Amino acid sequence: MSQENRNVWEMKKALNQEQKYKVEFLRLLIHADRTKWYLEAGFSSLFVLCTSELRLSRSSALKRIVAARAACRFTEILDLLEAGKIHLNAVVLLTPYFTEDNRTELLC
After folding, report:
1. Angle at the Cα of 66 (from 92 to 85), degrees rounded to 5?
2. Alpha helix locations (H) across the chain?
3. pLDDT given for residue 4 in this prediction
């Protein structure tokens, strides 16, 4: 395998891992949102936890919270994100329009 091919392979591998970790983070956000454990930990909101303790930017925190809440309603979102078939920004943009009736159409 040439060095260029190896570099491309490594980059694809890293992107795949990034997608898996992003989905894992969203699962953790869903759990936090459901159980509200962050309140007992002294954070006034999930957003405050994400920005103050986890040091996400405001926009990154909001995107992930919106996507986690959408994925809580429509669980196939997590599978599509992990497979790279949809990206976080698309989930955030589509979230206001998701319904039980159109979710398959919007996600495919």
Report:
1. 45
2. 3-35, 37-40, 46-48, 58-73, 76-83, 88-94, 103-107
3. 83
User: Cα–Cα distance between 13 and 33 in angstroms, integer?
Assistant: 30
Token pair in block for residue 64: 């992930």
Radius of gyration, CA atoms only, the chain: 16
Reduce the DSSP state of residue 41 to 3 states and report it. Answer: coil
Closest by CA position to 17, among listed 72, 87, 92, 84: 84
Cα torsion angle, 78, 80, 81, 87, sign: negative
Q: Is residue 2's pLDDT more than 90?
A: no
The per-residue pLDDT for 5 is 87
Query: What spatial distance separates the first Cα and last Cα of the chain, rounded to whole Å?
Result: 35
Q: What's this model's pTM, rounded to 2 decimal places?
A: 0.88
